[in-house]
Structure formats: structure tokens, C-alpha cells
Amino acid sequence: MATERTLSIIKPDAVAKNVIGDIYSRFEKAGLQIVGAKMLHLSKEQAEGFYAEHAERGFFADLVSFMTSGPVMVQVLEGEGAIAKNRELMGATNPKEAAPGTIRADFASSIDANAAHGSDAPESAAREISYFFKEEELCPRG
Ligand code: GDP
Ligand code: MG
After folding, report:
1. 88 lines ligand 1 (CB under 6 A)
2. What CA–CA distance (Å, rounded) separates 44 from 72?
3. Sign of CA dihedral 65, 102, 122, 20
4. In sequence order, which residues have a C-beta less than 8 Å from that of residue 93 and are 6 or more positions away?
5. 142, pLDDT greater than 90
6. Alpha carbon nearest to ligand 1 atom 9, residue
7. 97 lines ligand 1 (CB under 6 A)
8. What mean pLDDT, rounded, does the chain reach?
């Protein structure tokens, strides 16, 4: 499997629960390296742009409102099969369907407040990483 990068966001509910370190530890134990990170309080425009693919969905306004409700932790994860690995660690979008021991099973309280974001494909990973980071802000260890 190839080395990949993916964009991860610890959403406002998980930041408020003070579990950034717990979630980082899961990434590291799974063999993923954090090669860039920043804490941000997203503006409405930033959240709308990030989730533009969902603009026509009924839940879009709720999603944007939730994502701007408090600070988020945004990171680039690098490693073998990073995109799928991160999605596996996160669990299903709806925490009621998330496998036991996943981030969403452990920390999410609803389909809105579902603790984490992870890119779903190489194309979205590239777009989402460049949405938040310049290449020179990333620090791969090789
Ligand atoms: P993800 O890739 O697993 O995060 O899921 P999606 O890309 O399908 O959706 C993006 C985010 O929108 C999800 O993480 C949820 O926070 C939110 N979302 C998705 N589906 C629903 C829904 O049916 N209702 C509500 N309220 N929020 C949703
Ligand atoms: Mg998605």
C-alpha cells in the first residue's frame, strides 16, 4: 500500500470534551504520523467552502453551524493507506452505527456532533489538505 496523506479534523464537540490527545494517540498507534496541525475557529465562509460538496443537502446549515460553534483541531496524517486507516479509526458517520472502539463510537453524540472528519479519497484529501495547509507548512519525517 502506498504512503498517503489525509486531512483530519477533530470537530468542536471532541475539542470541547478535551480528547485531542486521546485521538492523536489513536493515530500514532495506528502508524500514522501527524505532519501538520493547527487549531482554528472556522468562520462561516471557511466551513461552507470546506463542505461545499454538501451545499445542497438538507443538513448543510446545521453542519456549518456546528462546525463554527467552537475551535477545531485540523491535522494532516501521513502513512501507509492513511485515508482508509483514518476512516477506519473514525468509524461510521452515524455514531449509532460506528464499530465499538472507534473515535465516533467513543466520543460522538449524534450524526451532527460526530467528533471527527477524515478525507474519503485521494482527490478529496488533496483538496482538503490544500484548503488548510501550504506544502511548506507540512513536516514529513521521511
Ligand atoms: P463523513 O465523511 O463520514 O464525515 O460523512 P459525510 O461526508 O457524508 O457528511 C459530512 C458530515 O455531515 C458528517 O460527518 C456529519 O457531521 C454531517 N451529516 C452527514 N449526514 C447527515 C445527516 O443525515 N444529518 C445531519 N444532521 N448531519 C449529517
Ligand atoms: Mg465526507
Report:
1. no
2. 13
3. positive
4. 104, 111, 114
5. no
6. 93
7. no
8. 97
- Check if 109 has its Cβ closer than 6 Å to any atom of ligand 1: no
Listed by start position, the domains of the chain span 3-137
Cα 5 to chain centroid, rounded: 12
What is the average pLDDT across 10-23? Answer: 98
ipTM above 0.95, yes or no: yes
The packing angle between helices 20-29 and 82-90, to 10°, is: 130
Is-catalytic flag, 117?
A: yes
CB 14 within 8 A of CB 71: no
Per-residue pLDDT of 46-68, as tens digits, reads: 999 999 999 999 999 999 999 99
Q: What is the pLDDT of residue 128?
A: 98
Give yes or no for a contact between 8 and 77, defined as CB atoms under 8 angstroms apart: yes
- 26, containing H or E segment: helix 20-29
Whole-number pLDDT of residue 1: 74
Topology classification of domain 3-137 = Alpha-Beta Plaits (3.30.70)
Please pick, among 117, 118, 128, 132, the residue that the annotation labels catalytic. 117
Residue 42 contacts residue 72 (beta carbons within 8 Å): yes
User: Which residues are found with C-beta within 5 Å of the ion, ligand 2?
Assistant: 120
